[in-house]
Amino acid sequence: MAGEDSMVNVRVEVNGVRHEYVGQAERPLLWFLRDGLGLSGTKYGCGIGQCGACTVHLDGQAVRSCVVPMSATSGRRVLTIEGLGTRERPHPLQQAWLTVGVSECGYCQPGQIMAAAALPPGPMPPDALRQIGNICRCGTYGRIGQAIALARAPKAAA
Amino acid sequence: MKLRRRGFVCAVTLSGLAWVTGSARAVAGGAGHAPAQPAVEDWALWLVIDAAGGITLFHKVTDLGQGTPSSLARVIAGQLGIDPERITLRQAPVREPYLKADDDYSTSGSSGIRTSFAASRRLGATARAVLVQAAALRWQVGVAECTVRAGSVVHEPSARTLRFSELAEAAASLPVPPEVHVDERPRPWPAAAAGRSRADESSLVDGSAVFGVDVQLPGLSTAAIVHCPIPGGTVRAVDASPALLRTGVFDVVTLDDAVAVVATDFWTASDALRRVRVEWSAPPTLPDTRVHRQALLAAVGAGEGLRSGGPRGVGADEHRRASEQGLASARRRLDATYYVPWAAHMTMEPQNATARVSDGRAELWLPTQNQALVRSTVATQLNLPADAVTVHTTRAGGGFGRRLEVDVAREATLIARRSGRPVKLVWSREQDLQNDYFRPAAAARLRAGLDANGGVSSIVVDVATPSILASSTSSHELPPGEPDFTALMGLQPGYSLPAASVGWTRVEAGLRSGWWRSVGCAANGFFLESFIDELAATTGVRPLACRRALLAHDPRATRLLQRLEQEVEAATPSARGWFWGHAWFRYSGTRVGHAVAVSRAGGRRIRIERILVVVDCGIVVDPHFARSQVEGGVVWGLSACRFGAVTFEQGRPGQSNFHDYPVARARHLPPIDVFFIDSSEEPGGLGEESVPGTAPALANAIFAATGRRLRELPFRAEEVEFADSSED
After folding, report:
1. Do B397 and A110 touch (CB under 8 A)?
2. Surface-to-core class of residue B184, CB atoms within 10 Å of its CB (0-12 exposed, 13-18 middle, 19+ buried)
3. Which of A42, B18, B43, B493 has a C-alpha 20 to 30 A away from that of B381?
4. B465 and B514 in contact (C-beta within 8 Å)?
5. Cβ separation B666–A130 shorter than 8 A
6. pTM score
7. DSSP state of B248
8. What is the dihedral of CA B620, B626, B631, B632, to 10 degrees?
9. Which residues of B704-726 are buried (b: 16+ CB within 10 A; e: fewer)?
């Protein structure tokens, strides 16, 4: 190990499970999740916080995990797509994604869903898609908007 | 995949399902409404009905998001009278008997449905016929007395039922009838329940889908790579020691034009790679896109390219002379030069491949559109027989033509062999962008001569591009003395105009060219459909009326443009201020009409208000995926209008990631409405068809709003700025 690297010992909760990370401070959360914990639903798309494929929640806020160093996660709660819902009991957004049939290739969708799940509660904000701002190269934006609206619609109307 | 001169038509018949053995023969049927068609003899290879009642379809087309395997399952289910969701989809193994020839396993050219629709119908009909036969034999009744219903064969007179699973074994051993009756109703299958089109859809929303970057194997290491920053350059010297000191680093592998670090995981490998000191040798000529642009424009100005086109029996050079004379003697002339730059694919999942090489065998896991070529390439590389190479297709995070190339598979194989361990090679986004097989830049000069009545008397088109065929890993060399057909794609969209004299000049830039969603049509659609608008403006005819007149001989085009006009009227608000632009395109059996509305937002600013697309693709096999493909093509086309330009200056790349190579996000998009013409014609393609018309329809709308004719992509800020659709 090269001497200039700063090492950290971080306790972080991921999807309700406590983990200990010992390693370089600057390792991005994305790569701890993917390669350290095997949670590969969080995707690498750009590495510079631009595309949003790696979006997870940090203490309830949507963050782009490719630019969050492990040193910034100490004592915090992380939620990934794997912890949002299960196949048997999907999160309302996941269910809406299935009902609308949002996905094409699907690579960006975990990030889109996590970003949508962090929007403030209540009626669909008119600029929801702008707030999310994640890239989808297949061009599924229209259906992403439909799915968010569906998930937020009053249950009687759904 | 080997792309031959016969060109795209040939190249695109390769994908989908391999039982395509000829076009469906319509023979007068003996019983009832359905004509008889040749049966599919090896049906049980593709459609496996197990004893537990499961039905599995083996397919060769890769699902890149377009949903083709599911759509084909729907077609087969229609013939079998079952719910499409009962069919499980599996990628066919990349070997015999599924792989019949070395080049028949690829996904390209919007061909998945188009080339396999008829064969899929026959496959389902054949399976139905032998299942019915098996039941009739067991019951000792006539075949005509039996029907299929919900996964069973039913004998109504005796109220007996046998499930397909109970008949499968007997059916598989029966001789296949030479002809089967195909249910030719356009959609004998239930309407798609929205969003339930793919059985494994939920894996895409819960994070469990396994893309290439997610592959796991025992003892797998991960490699990060850096290529020479100047395309065409090579490695001169490497000092790997600082990287090798790091915990978790196994190896540093030097390739001809790249250096890779093999480590426990991607971030360790990437971090170590930054510490490797590499000296590069620059290529003799440094790629420079500005210089190349000038060369392209000079070439179309000179008009001395390889000639083609013209009426039958008239030589291309002779036709050029006649066309030039026609221009010279014309009452009026139109002369316009256009340009599109280099563009990148930017698939959301960066290029990657996993390779395990051992004991005279190789195994690869990767998102690919070109399985057969991966297999033969790796076999050649390792000097192994082809059947010693196994290729596993993972989910693909987009393809758009980029995954027809086998460069990454080749690198992963080499790194795995050199390092002696299984390796997952993952390119960073920067590497993915800078080492793309780009959509090549293209320039075109279009000239038309008009007679006294405003009719077109003569057309000359000169195009200059690099050659995709000569560059792509998925093609043969460019045939000597012939134009690269990809450069001329889309120049014949079916107008009743004098035959154009076409010239093509190959102008290389030292960059790699490849297949980019809609290939040459992306440039040529912009050129031609903008030029048609210029023609209309010159003659004072409304652009849509001009197109209708030029397509009056094509009833499907006429119906489509009428529908487009109706939809434009219905969409236009009563308040004034929207300006519409249109485009027409015909490609791979599909006809497309675009209408784009813009409004002025002050100064050079315009706002895109609405996009309407009317599509006649024949039978719409799966409305959900069909609509998604058309919308996606429009978004793709809009990206290229507003942002997409790759530049190199004196060899140095000008872009590295999404911050300096932006693509369309939700805020850039207006509402997009897609309308399909109801049709019972054979299906055409849909994956690329809505791309070419998007840029010209927008450019034509901007002309209508501002009087500015934009002849270059992306539209430059000096010409026009965009107010985002959600801005006030």
Report:
1. no
2. middle
3. B18
4. no
5. yes
6. 0.94
7. T
8. -140
9. bbbeebbbbbbbeeeebebbbbe
- In Å, how far is A75's CA from the nearest CA of chain B? 23
Q: Tell whether B264 lies on the interface with A, counting CB pairs under 8 A.
A: yes
| Chain A residues touching B433 at Cβ < 8 A | none
Cβ separation A141–B64 shorter than 8 A: no
**Tokens, residue B588:** 């791979």
Residue-averaged pLDDT of chain A: 93
User: Is a pLDDT exceeding 80 seen at residue B265?
Assistant: yes
Of A53, A100, A106, the CB nearest to B209: A106
CATH architecture of B8-201: 2-Layer Sandwich (3.30)
Which of A39-53, B50-64, B675-689 has the lowest average pLDDT? Answer: B50-64
Query: What pLDDT is stored for residue B22 in this prediction?
Result: 24
In B189-331 the beta strands, taken as DSSP E runs, fall at 221-227, 234-239, 249-254, 258-263, 277-281, 306-308
Residue B262 and residue B251 in contact, taking contact as beta carbons nearer than 8 Å: yes
Amino acid letter for position B235: V
Q: How far is CA B239 from CA B253, B274, B415, in A?
A: 11, 12, 18
Q: Give the angle A158-A104-B193 at the CA atoms, nearest 5°.
A: 40
- Give B478's DSSP letter: P
* Chain A nearest C-alpha distance from B315 (Å): 44
State residue B28's pLDDT score.
29
Query: How is A120-144 classified by DSSP, letter by letter?
Result: PSSSPPTTHHHHH----TT--HHHH
Q: What is the CATH topology of the domain spanning A7-83?
A: Ubiquitin-like (UB roll) (3.10.20)
pLDDT confidence band for B31 (50 / 70 / 90):
very low
Q: Are the beta carbons of B206 and A85 separated by less than 8 Å?
A: yes
Return the CATH fold of A85-152.
Answer: DNA polymerase; domain 1 (1.10.150)
Listed by start position, the domains of chain B span 8-201, 212-283+351-426, 292-341+439-723
Q: Give the nearest chain B residue to A130 (CA atoms).
A: B667
Q: Does B631 touch chain A (CB under 8 A)?
A: yes
Cis link prior to B97 (omega < 30° from 0)?
yes
With cut-offs at 50, 70 and 90, classify the pLDDT of residue B190: low
Cis ω on the peptide bond leading into residue B35 (within 30° of 0)? no
**What would the CATH number be for the domain defined by B292-341+439-723?**
3.30.365.10
Residue A4's pLDDT is 52
The rounded distance, in Å, linking the Cα atoms of A3 and A24 is: 11
CB–CB contact A133 B659 (8 Å): no
| Domain residue ranges in chain A | 7-83, 85-152
Domain B212-283+351-426 has CATH 3.30.300.130: no
Interface touch B346/A137, C-beta < 8 Å:
yes
Q: Are B625 and B75 in contact (CB under 8 A)?
A: no
Distance in angstroms (rounded) separating the CA atoms of residues B346 and B431: 11
pLDDT of residue B201: 86
Supply the DSSP symbol for B654: S
Q: Tell me which residue in A47, A48, A97 faces B205 most closely, judged by beta carbons.
A: A97
Give yes or no for residue B16 having a pLDDT over 80: no
Give the chain B residue nearest A101 (alpha carbons): B195
